[in-house]
Amino acid sequence: MLKEIYQPNPDIVSNAAIRGMGEYWELQSRAKADYEGFWEGYANRKIEWFKPFDTVLDESNPPFYKWFSGGQLNVAHQCVDRHLATKKNKAAIIFEGDNGDYQILTYRRLSYEVNKTANMFKNMFGIKKGDRVVLYMPMIPEAAISMLACAKIGAIHSVVFGGFSAEALRDRIEDAQAKLVVTADGAFRKGKPYMLKPVVDKALEARCECVNAVCVVERNGEEIHWEPGRDYAYNELIKSQSHVCEAEPMESEDPLFLLYTSGSTGKPKGVQHATAGYILWAQMTMEWVFDLKDNDTYWCTADVGWITGHTYIVYGPLAAGATTIMFEGVPTYPDAGRCWRMIEEYQINQFYTAPTAIRLLHKMGADEPAKYDLSSLRVLGTVGEPIDPPAWKWYYEEVGHENCAIVDTWWQTETGGHMVSPLPGATAIKPACATFPLPGIMAEVIDEEGNPTPVGEKGFLCITKPWPSMIRNVWGDEDRYISSYFGDCKKEGKPVYFSGDGAMVDEGGYITITGRTDDVINVSGHRMGTAEVEAAIKKHDGVAAVAVVGKPHEIKGEGIFAYIVLKSDDGVADELETMKEINGIIKQEIGAIALCDDMAFVPDLPKTRSGKIMRRILRSIVKGEAITQDTSTLEDPSIVPTIEEIVNRKV
Ligand code: WT7
User: Fold this and answer.
1) How far apart are CA 333 and CA 330, in angstroms?
2) Among the atoms of ligand 1, which is closest to the Cα of residue 409?
3) Ligand 1 neighbour 261 (Cβ under 6 A)
4) Residue 511 falls within a domain, yes or no?
5) Is the CB of 529 under 6 A from ligand 1?
6) Domain end position, chosen among 329, 361, 381
7) Is 256 within a domain?
8) Are residues 147 and 189 both part of a single domain?
9) CA of 16 to the centre of ligand 1 (A)
10) Dihedral over alpha carbons 419, 399, 313, 504 (to 10 degrees)
11) How confident is the model over 585-606, as pLDDT tens digits?
12) Residue 211 belongs to domain with CATH number
């Protein structure tokens, strides 16, 4: 049984920034009373400005908010160069390879590499301020170095997760109109080499006329194709570059990066983040939520292809002058003790991972943590999806030895950094609960009209005031920015940011996230758009109609389940064969992360008379729940029991 409230050991967990809930409430009311003054203070203290800003927040053209206008700064300077005076020889990045090889980049070494890379981008590839650079990289230091090199010269990077297919990569390159792609031959996973460069080659076979060059880092040394005049060896070119590079002065609102993410409709959206607001909040949350101390070693297991990797492997930790671990491998190789062994070896103080990884490690080796010295740990974090109580309990007891704070951090690609999260050393923790909005963040659970939802009832999780690290636009699509985030909820008659998540507040004001209110599926903490998966499945010749929904999954949280209507009525000669074909297409169109766990071949989908698919019914069926929805509005209500029978036969 879990208790209601947990208070971590105060001898172990403290918070230098916010020492208790008293201070938390004080900060939050200060932010409410003088919102701009609150942010102005932090922006002045935390950022090393090249030129001070004139305005804190410009709300003259909602929802296109501007923060710290008039100010100039550079994120690579903020993350690397400004630390050289005091942390020259402190480890900035500790890289551990899949095979256990490791590399330590001190702040000086990082600055040296970033400058050389920035000069290479500028001199060899003509990259200028505002140009887009796609990074299709494994988890190696050159990924972080390339991100910072872009920031140094004012180029806008767009990191594409290495698990995405050539098609998906091509779409993102095209949408961003990238001039340069930086990649690697490949890397190592579970003791074996895997390849990335061939995927880039394939992506560039069609369209992508914007791309002038591909810069290839050597990591696994495998044979790759070299396209003359297009492909260049990073490791060769870098040698002749100067290690001195002026930081480009950037306006506060200049875009820092794009990161594509899925919604329930349409193609992935290029979430656009701005320079000053993003780096400010990345640094502040890093310090607040992880109780960061100067001598700490911090490890976030995410991939740089996701926002967590951006904010909490690269930008947040480095802006805060921390030591951040970058790990190429997987948590289960060579065995289920890999993470715990690394925690022991490096004496990790903060460990940040996804519930999926916790469930997997629990299942594969519940007793493994006990074999290692984990006493260095103070803060354990989770992110990306709701954590279930059994996983929370194991994490708290077996990994944290009931001493550590567990920070269940709620946020999104669009929010840039943490929004709702416990503060170690301050917040009394409720298991599997994101607890309170961070100071300065006006997160509220409301109905469409902005009324707070009653205690214990589900509402929409909205951020009712703009915040510095918020999304600025959907790249090249202002209408989509407005309709995706500011269309559903209002407060005092004005549109407010709606996250797409539902949540509940209890008597004590604790916020519990109840999950997406739209059709987005959360697979292993990654957002999968139903429309994208469906579009891929429709490319199969035999498919007439399809609807995908999330199905609860023991490890992944949710898996993808597809209801498929085939064109011919003959039934499926070989269901397994057809499923394989369909998954083959998904792998080609999106990547292995979007593969369906299961499919049901059904004669039709439950559609309203106007042709809208009733997904809620399909979700209920796959969960084995009783159908409570009114089916009388369906074109053919009898389809529901038919589908139920087909699905039940499968299990
Ligand atoms: C969606 C955002 C934030 C970085 C990783 C995912 C879900 C995120 C939590 C949490 C419950 C969570 C939400 C959110 N989510 N954190 N602590 N508890 N759900 O980023 O791909 O932008 O996905 O992840 O549904 O909307 P993302």
Assistant:
1) 6
2) 17
3) yes
4) no
5) no
6) 329
7) yes
8) yes
9) 27
10) -20
11) 999 999 999 999 999 999 999 9
12) 3.40.50.12780
